[in-house]
Amino acid sequence: MQYERQTEPMATRQVFLRRLVRNSAFAISILLLSLGLGVIGYHSTEGLPWIDALLNASMLLGGMGPVAELHTIAGKLFASFYALFSGIVLLAAAGVIIAPLFHRFLHHFHLEIDQEDG
Fold first, then answer.
1. Among 57, 71, 87, 105, which is 20 to 30 Å from 48 by CA?
2. How far apart are alpha carbons 94 and 24 in whole angstroms?
3. Per the domain annotation, does 30 fall within a domain?
4. Is residue 3 one of the residues assigned to a domain?
5. Which letter does DSSP use for residue 65 in this model?
6. Which residues of 47-63 are buried (b: 16+ CB within 10 A; e: fewer)?
């Protein structure tokens, strides 16, 4: 993704909003893929019904923890690795969404400093 450089003028509001929507869509797709991975993992390792697998995966991906009690070693191993993976994915998705906002703020701040110096 190409952002404008410090010496370039700030992007228009339309370009900024398009960038924000694109980044949000990318982050949501990452979260949905991760959720799908968790649902399939819980269903295959623990034999949970699809809705319970969705609940467990959603709770872990959201940072809350599993709901159903795990009985198999494979399920417990999957849950531990999925929990670590989920924490990283959640932080990465938040970073992808926040990046255009943070860039715009910093770019605006640098433009104000350059105008005061010039």
1. 87
2. 9
3. yes
4. no
5. -
6. ebeeebbbbbbebbbee
- The answer, as to whether pTM is greater than 0.85, is no
Q: Where are the alpha helices (DSSP H) in 2-72?
A: 13-46, 50-61
- What's the DSSP call for residue 63? T
Residue range 51-81, pLDDT digits in tens = 999 999 999 998 888 888 999 999 999 999 9
Residue 6: what residue type? Answer: Q
The CATH number for 39's domain is: 1.10.287
Q: Write down the residue that tokens 């623990």 correspond to.
A: 46
Number of independent structural domains in the chain? 1
Q: Which two tokens stand for residue 52?
A: 């319970």
Angle between helices 50-61 and 13-46 (to 10 degrees): 130
Identify residue 55 by its one-letter amino acid code: L
Binning the chain into helix, strand and coil, the percentages to the nearest 5 are 75, 0, 25
